[in-house]
Amino acid sequence: MMVEVFSTYNPGEIAVIKSILDGEGIRYFFQGENINLLIAAGSRPRLLVDEQDVDRVRDILRELDFL
C-alpha cells in the first residue's frame, strides 16, 4: 500500500527528493506531478511511498528540512 508523506508545488524540491530516493533505492510515486491543471486548481503533487518506507522517507525529508 502506498502512503502520502509529502506534497509540494516546488519542482526543485521534487527533483531533489527524487534524486535522493532513487539513490536510496526507495520506491516512490509523485501523484499529479505532471498535471498543471491540478496545480492551477490548488492541488499539489503528492509523494507516495510504500508503507514500510514511510518512517525512513520522513527521516530523509526532515534531514532536507522539507518536513
CATH topology: Alpha-Beta Plaits
Q: Which strands sit side by side, in order, in the main sheet?
A: 1-3-2
Q: Just give the CATH class.
A: Alpha Beta
Structural class of the helix and strand makeup? Answer: alpha+beta
Distance between the ends: 22 Å
Mean pLDDT: 88
Indicate the topology.
Elements: E1 2-7, H1 11-24, E2 28-31, H2 36-40, E3 46-50, H3 54-63
Antiparallel strand pairs: 1-3, 2-3
Task: Please explain how this structure is put together.
With 67 residues, the protein is an alpha+beta fold. The chain has a single domain, classed as Alpha-Beta Plaits, CATH 3.30.70. The protein is built from three helices and three strands; from the N terminus they run βαβαβα. The model has no long low-confidence stretch (mean pLDDT 88).
What would a concise description of this structure say?
The protein is of the alpha+beta class and 67 residues long.
